[in-house]
Design brief:
Shape: elongated
Structural class: mainly alpha
Number of domains: 1
Number of strands: 0
CATH topology: Methane Monooxygenase Hydroxylase, Chain G, domain 1
Strand content: under 5%
Radius of gyration: 19 Å
CATH architecture: Up-down Bundle
Largest sheet: none
Order of helices and strands: HHHHH
Helix content: over 70%
Length: 157
């Protein structure tokens, strides 16, 4: 059980690290710092891959504890008997939920900033008589309105 608790804690800590990167990306978006935006996105992709690895480890450990691999942390929490391990998991689950919710919100805000920037750029290009590019990191045709991360991660709570 201690390994499982550590795995949940590792996931929560990774989300906190990802919050820092998301803040850097948002700052770069607000300051129109293209190279910093690109660097932040690359860092985010690597951090997300690490989070998915941690999440896979967490699911393996819960399986070893006799829980179904598809169960959420909250479902496991509901099945644990009262005691220090349940209380620790409750704290970790709340930290994980809070960090993931904040990460989703900051990601949503960054996406909105990027959309505004693209609309402004495309508008200025149109006024200058230049064709729309449709290219680039946050091009309107490439952006997707979806929560950050994989479906597996978003449904793990």
């Amino acid at each position: 059980m201690q390994d499982y608790l550590q795995a949940v804690d590792d996931c929560a800590q990774q989300c906190v690290k990802m919050l820092e990167v998301e803040s850097e990306k948002r700052r770069a978006l607000m300051n129109n710092e293209g190279k910093n935006i690109e660097a932040a996105v690359k860092t985010q992709q690597a951090a997300l891959m690490k989070l998915e690895t941690l999440e896979t480890r967490r699911m393996q450990l819960q399986e070893e504890l006799g829980f179904d691999r598809s169960m959420t942390v909250s479902e496991i929490l509901d099945r644990l008997p009262e005691g220090p391990e349940r209380e620790r998991l409750r704290e970790l689950a709340q930290s994980l939920k809070d960090a993931a919710a904040e990460l989703r919100e900051q990601n949503r805000q960054s996406l909105e900033l990027a959309k505004l920037d693209m609309r402004l750029i495309e508008s200025l290009r149109g006024k200058a008589g230049l064709p729309e590019t449709g290219a680039g990191l946050y091009a309107p045709r490439k952006m997707q309105d979806r929560p950050m991360g994989s479906g597996k991660f978003n449904s793990s709570f």
